[in-house]
Design brief:
Elements lengths: L7 E3 L5 E3 L12 H30 L6 H15 L2
Antiparallel strand pairs: 1-2
Amino acid sequence: MLLAKGPKISVPDATIIDLRLRYNFRRHPTPGRQQSLSRAFGCARVVFNDALVARKCAYKYGKYVTDVELSQALTREGAARFQ
């Protein structure tokens, strides 16, 4: 009888079989896709940092900003930046 960590399957003859399935692969994006990914992650980082600053400012003044309020404010700010 095999006892090891991981998913186990019981078969009719009361033997326990340990299955370990793992796939390891790496994607290598084309230069165009790499630029698009960099831009997307850069934008996400800016939005996250802006949200963090807004939450910290609100906390400093004893207020709580809900997710909806934060989303609306960041959307308005982002739209104003690109007009």
